[in-house]
Structure formats: structure tokens, C-alpha cells
Amino acid sequence: VPNHLIWLIFFYWFFHSCLNAVAELLQFGDREFYRDWWNSESVTYFWQNWNIPVHKWCLRHFYKPMLRRGVNKWTAQAAVFLASAFFHEYLVSVPLRMFRLWAFMGMAAQIPLAWLVSRFLRGHYGNAAVWMSLILGQPIAVLMYVHDYYVLNCEG
């Protein structure tokens, strides 16, 4: 839970405080940086609403061009999500100087989870599944990176 608490504090600090402060300084009118992701009843809704600027960028530059080229909706969604998973892995691997795929696999696991939640869980059960994936999934990935970093850099 402490990892999740840190994630929530970072979310508030960055998405609510910093981005709104920058928007105020730049007199930027569109301040929709996130929507009500905490009420997500599906994994898909969560990923579409927790980071609006990135979601809109992915729609504009990945998803819609694929649809215009004749790629079906599901394949385009999976491709965009896997591209996002690649960039998450990249953002972790470069600073740590190790390539382990934990972030990529964690993100890729969201694809079948999204299907399972949308197919079998509705309402509060879907919301509970989203929160469980947030509370358990990210700390497991962080612990995997901490373990691998320690093994590579701290053992004699």
C-alpha cells in the first residue's frame, strides 16, 4: 500500500498541481489532464481517463491512423497499448541501465485483464478489479526492478 500511496501523491502533485500551474502561467484554456479514473468500472476506462494528454496523443498519432489504414479496432487498441508498454519499459530501463521487460509485461498483462474485467465483472466488481491491479501490479513490478538492480549492482 505505501507504493500505491506514493503513486497517488505523485498523481495529485503532477497532474493536478504542476500541470494546472503551468496551464495558468501559459494561459492554457483546456485543463482536462485527467477524468474520474478512480471510478473506473473497467480497465479500458481507467487507461482512457487517467492521463488525458497522453491518451489524446496516442489517439491522434497511433490509433486513428491505423483505423484509416484498415486495421480493425481491437488490433489498433492492442497495438497502441503495446507501444505504450514499450515506452513505459524504456522510461524505466534507461535510468536503471538494465533491460528487464517487467514494465512491458505488466502493461501487456493489462490487455487480457481488460478483456476479463469487461466480460465477467460489472459495476463495483469491475472497479475493485481495477484498484486491485493498481495496488498489486505496480508494486510487484517495482519490486522486480529493485531485486534485479540489487543483484546486478550490489552483490559481490
Keywords:
156 residues, mainly alpha, 77% helix, globular
Write a structural description.
It is a single chain. With 156 residues, the chain is mainly alpha-helical. It has 7 helices and no strands. Helix 3 (52-68) packs across helix 4. The longest helix has 30 residues, at 124-153. The chain is globular, with a radius of gyration of 17 Å. The mean pLDDT is 93.
Biggest β-sheet description = none
Task: Tell me the overall shape.
Answer: globular
Q: Count every beta strand, where a strand is a DSSP E run of 2 or more residues.
A: 0
**Can you give the mean pLDDT?**
93
Low-confidence runs: none
The percentage helix is over 70%
What order do the helices and strands come in, and which of them pair?
Blueprint lengths: L1 H24 L17 H7 L2 H17 L4 H24 L5 H7 L1 H11 L3 H30 L3
Helix pairs in contact: 3-4, 4-5, 6-7
Q: How do you describe this structure in short?
A:
The chain is built from seven helices and no strands. With 156 residues, the protein is mainly alpha-helical. Helix 3 packs across helix 4 (73-96) and helix 6 packs antiparallel against helix 7 (124-153).
